[in-house]
What does this fold into?
Amino acid sequence: MNYHLTSFGCQMNDHDAERMRGLLESLGYRESRIRDDADLILFNTCTIRGSADERFLGNLGEARRIKRENPDVVVAVGGCWAQSQKELVFTQFPFVDIAFGPGEITRLGELIARERIEAVGAFSFDGAFSGTLPAKRERPHHAWVQISVGCNCVCSYCIVPAVRGRERSRHPQELVDEVAALAGDGVREVTLLGQNVNSYGRDLPRGERMTFAELLRAVGSVPGIWRVRYTSPHPKDMREDVIAAMAETPTLCEHVHLPAQSGSTAVLKRMRRTYSRERYIDLLARIRDGIEDVSVTTDLIVGFPGETDEEFADTLSLVREARYDGAFTFVYSERPGTEAAAAMQDDIPPALKSERIQALVDTVHEVSRARARRFVDAEHEVLVEGPSRNDPDRLRGRLRQNITVNFSGDAVPGSLAMVRITGASSATLTGEQVGVRVPA
Ligand code: SAH
Ligand code: SF4
Ligand code: F3S
It folds into this structure.
């Protein structure tokens, strides 16, 4: 049997997709690169913005056509969109055989077995973590490690708490064991994943608990692991102990992804982010003081309900003041069921939203291009990932600061190369390998 999987959305979904592949292959399924050739067409969906829904629905129309031509094909829809549509999915899309939410991934095998009898859906949160499933990793030397699922924050624009449920942490020993097993399997870099990694552990019983900072130190001390990253911290929960752990643990990379969402305190208040612009900037200053040559990236939203020209200008000025190395920028999208959808008018005209996102993207590029120049004409450690995307004769890898480098050299994937950086665009660097690094 062949399966074809299309995954959308964030790193959590990338992680879940690797586990779905691992589970299906343990059941004897083989991955098909062509959807038309698959016996099982599987989608791992996202619903964070309206554009995510639209992209997925285009793909689902393709599955409908294939199923019409070959009724034996099984169509399965998992992930956040499926969870948000649990009441409607089988009536609106009768060709869908299986639907399940992000909390039911461990039951995928059982659902496939039952599907022959009836269309099946599973949308509760059954308590099992998808992180316990076998994984088929996209990058052999990198692994996602799911430390928690769900989110207890109440950001007024965000659908994630509704579709991923309350926050639940995995046990620290289980996580350290998992990372040790990954190291034994050749993994050199791990990225710890959670919607709000800093609140990790608070739901675990006293005595079994570790704070996020303690977990970082523990994972960072696993032999064979050279680099540890994490995403995302919520600024309200980012504490000194995490900054100290990063400063003192050599494997913890000098990169913080710190979603700001807006540079305006008034907008942050309407978003229910629970910090002000000033507190955010103060936190950033402490991060920069504590962690030498740290890179900082962020998420920003434009066109939130009621956003005035001045409030938007505050976001532009934050980008300059924060000196971001990069930012994911989004146009506000009203999500049914969120507080903002219920209580606020989506009142910024589309043309103004486009104007603002363009201005924001331009400012981010300008700032991050200037920042990237600090690496030029110096040697930096690069973890090699494979051939360069544009030129197979060159290599691609990443700095500890998470910036991509395309370079000439002969280092093997999964090794550390010393690279002399010769050029910088805003998103990537170019360079030449000058040596190798053998970690202690
Ligand atoms: N838990 C993570 C990721 C949340 S989703 C975090 O808090 O950082 C990733 C990003 O999508 C968010 O940071 C936010 O910038 C954006 N986003 C979420 N809901 C949105 C919406 N309704 N419209 C536009 N962007 C949104
Ligand atoms: Fe959404 Fe806020 Fe939770 Fe992030 S922290 S997932 S933006 S509710
Ligand atoms: Fe991620 Fe999209 Fe779900 S951003 S948590 S896959 S709604």
Observations:
- Residues 151, 153, 155, 158, 160-161, 195-196, 234 surround iron/sulfur cluster (ligand 2) (CB under 6 Å).
- Residues 350-372 form the longest helix (23 residues).
- The longest strand covers residues 428-437.
- The mean pLDDT is 96.
